[in-house]
Design brief:
Helix content: 40-55%
Shape: globular
CATH topology: Rossmann fold
Order of helices and strands: EHHEHEEHEHHHEHEHH
Structural class: alpha/beta
CATH superfamily: 5'-nuclease
Strand order of the largest sheet: 5-2-1-6-7
Mean pLDDT: 92
Distance between the termini: 42 Å
């Protein structure tokens, strides 16, 4: 994976979306991709080929081939991150998102950009001061030269920016954070 210009941490939604768009391998050729272990092992299993057929996704095979990195956050780091949220926000974040946010929160050095298609994950990242690390799938694809115009709204830059705009003031108000 050396020599690739960008470092991205992907949640389940973008991984599945990239498979559906036929762009997964193109991204792996152009960027360093990291996937949380929970996403790789429990949340991403199939993608819909458009004809109602579920096609398997094997991220461990991609890792074994050296195409991506699967990272496992320490359980204590995940618990620490989740403890910073109030019960409502904690409930909205799934296990893969929690692991991704924990990885970002305790990353040593320049953290990767976090690509998700989940409003709660974007808000949670904003609450921890990670708004500048959030990237839409649309922007990610543009940065690696795979720009697309046929993306679902949850993958579009406009949507992610709206969610960040909701999350930043929540941090200021303390909304969603444990008291």
């Amino acid at each position: 994976m050396s020599g690739k210009p960008r470092l991205f941490l992907l949640d389940a939604g973008p991984v599945i979306g990239l498979h559906e768009l036929g762009l997964w391998h193109g991204l792996l050729e152009r960027a360093h991709v990291i996937v949380p272990a929970v996403v790789a092992d429990k949340e991403v299993e199939f993608w819909d080929d458009g004809g109602g057929v579920g096609r398997p996704i094997d991220l461990r095979r991609d890792e074994a081939a050296g195409h991506l990195q699967i990272c496992c956050a320490d359980a204590a780091n995940i618990a620490n991150v989740l403890d910073r949220f109030d019960p409502v926000m904690r409930e909205r974040i799934d296990a893969g998102e929690a692991e991704a946010i924990a990885l970002l929160h305790c990353w040593d050095g320049e953290p990767p950009e976090f690509c998700t298609a989940d409003r709660a994950a974007v808000r949670a990242a904003c609450l921890l001061g990670l708004a500048d690390r959030i990237v839409s799938l649309e922007a990610l694809l543009r940065r690696v030269g795979l720009g697309q115009s046929r993306l679902l709204p949850k993958y579009q830059e406009r949507t992610i920016r709206e969610w960040v705009a909701e999350g930043r003031p929540m941090r200021v108000r303390g909304e969603g954070l444990a008291r």
